[in-house]
Amino acid sequence: MSKKIRTEAVDYLFDAILSLQDKEECYTFFEDICTINELLSLSQRFEVAKMLREKKTYLEIAEKTGASTATISRVNRSLNYGNDGYDMVFRRLESKKEN
Predict the structure, then answer these.
(1) Which of 11, 15, 16, 37 lies 20 to 30 Å (CA to CA) from residue 5?
(2) What's the pTM value of the predicted model, to 2 decimals?
(3) Which SUPFAM superfamilies does UniProt cross-reference here (predicted)?
(4) What is the mean pLDDT of the chain?
(5) Separation of alpha carbons 14 and 80, rounded Å
């Protein structure tokens, strides 16, 4: 993990996020802390990651999500060389879906 983001302020933010109890609380909190565009950008990146894991092409992803090839490439780099955060979350979501 990058030491650049490991600060007391980021720890406090993550503690706040971990305190959220359901999707409705997430909507309430994230609508206050993020602009609509920031939230839509985050969800777009997450959708791009999902589609990359499904082996979709850049063209298919760009058409469905509206993401630029630069964004798709950045997400792809995170999937291939990042901290495996996307994979961790996708495994948990898939496991939850199966149960």
Answers:
(1) 37
(2) 0.89
(3) TrpR-like (SSF48295)
(4) 95
(5) 24
